[in-house]
Specification:
8 helices, mainly alpha
Length: about 220
């Protein structure tokens, strides 16, 4: 019952922040932004797990780092670095779970997507002389795809969903910031972001899939 109430509260405060909090009051906006994350962390903490205890501890740490990143992202590079650390922590968490090879078609899609995004975003920054930012973007693309790779290899369905949503959220943010403005950017980025963190938190309660991973049972 308590976890259901937490879920409702997460949805309520996420919608409140995304659609109703004015951008003019930056301090208040940051405060409202981290409330859903604080609730998501509470949800993960309250979720019983049959997985290794270290998995839950690393997920809680990753969620906390990402909540800090939510506040400092207003200063872009510090936020990027903090989220980078958060993804490394998620990678460590997913490595605590038994791994299997991911399907070749999934590996191919991840690699193709990473190469295309890198060419698109990095080349754009190099053309305008932003060399440091270009390499920072390349490093970030790498770490989030590695995070997605390990999430899929973990065979935790909620972790897989969360990782894919995180990739979508960060991709939309990067395209909007460095390539071209996206309509409804804030809603697209934050809805997928909160959903990603929610599912990663829920993965604490996942059970391992013991059979092979293929198109039919990749997310089960």
């Amino acid at each position: 019952m308590f976890r259901k109430s937490l879920t409702i509260s997460i949805i309520f405060f996420s919608v409140l922040y995304i659609f109703f909090i004015p951008a003019e009051s930056e301090v208040f906006k940051i405060f409202m932004k981290i409330i859903p994350m604080a609730l998501i962390i509470t949800l993960a903490f309250q979720t019983e797990t049959s997985l290794p205890k270290l998995y839950k501890k690393w997920i809680l740490l990753g969620l906390t780092i990402c909540m800090i990143a939510d506040a400092v992202i207003y200063w872009f590079l510090p936020g990027l670095i903090t989220f980078f650390i958060g993804h490394i922590i998620y990678i460590i968490a997913f490595q605590k779970i038994w791994h299997a090879q991911i399907p070749k078609w999934v590996a191919g899609l991840l690699l193709l997507y990473g190469i295309l995004m890198a060419i698109w975003l990095v080349s754009t920054q190099l053309k305008i002389g932003e060399t440091v930012l270009a390499f920072a973007i390349l490093a970030y693309i790498t770490v989030i795809l590695v995070m997605g790779w390990h999430a899929i290899a973990s065979r935790l369905s909620f972790a897989i969903i969360g990782a894919v949503l995180f990739i979508i959220s960060d991709s939309a943010l990067a395209i909007d910031r460095f390539i071209t403005p996206l309509p409804y950017r804030d809603a697209l980025v934050m809805i997928t972001y909160y959903a990603a963190q929610f599912f990663i938190a829920k993965s604490v309660g996942n059970h391992l899939i013991k059979h092979s991973v293929n198109r039919r049972n990749l997310i089960k």
